[in-house]
Amino acid sequence: MTAEELQSVIAAGLPCEHITVEGDGRHWSATIVSAEFEGRRPIARHQRVYATLGDKIKTDEVHALSMKTLTPTEWAALSQ
């Protein structure tokens, strides 16, 4: 799987204002900005992203995914 493919899978299952994915094919790092994260704790945000991956996690197609999950407001504050 490529970074672009993983980004597409996440974006297909979660409306994102911004998403970047980097990695080596097994270990990934992603920054994901979505309004769906509003009012959710970090663990719930991560679970929401993992839900978009479905079997790709279970079959080890995506071995490890480190995430920075932000709301649009949090993202805007970091960008200043």
Which properties best describe this structure?
alpha+beta, 3 strands, three-stranded mixed β-sheet, 80 residues
> How many angstroms does the end-to-end distance come to?
33 Å
| Approximate helicity band | 40-55%
Oligomer: single chain
What percent strand? 25-35%
Describe the protein's architecture and organization:
- The chain is globular and about 35 Å long.
- It has a three-stranded mixed β-sheet with strand order 1-2-3.
- Strand 1 and strand 2 form a beta hairpin.
- By secondary structure, the protein is α+β, with helices and mostly antiparallel strands.
- The termini are far apart.
- Helix content is 44%, strand content 25%.
- Helix 1 packs across helix 2.
- It has helices at residues 3-13, 42-53, 55-58, 72-79, and strands at residues 18-23, 27-33, 64-70.
SSE layout:
Elements lengths: L2 H11 L4 E6 L3 E7 L8 H12 L1 H4 L5 E7 L1 H8 L1
Parallel strand pairs: 2-3
Antiparallel strand pairs: 1-2
Helix pairs in contact: 1-2
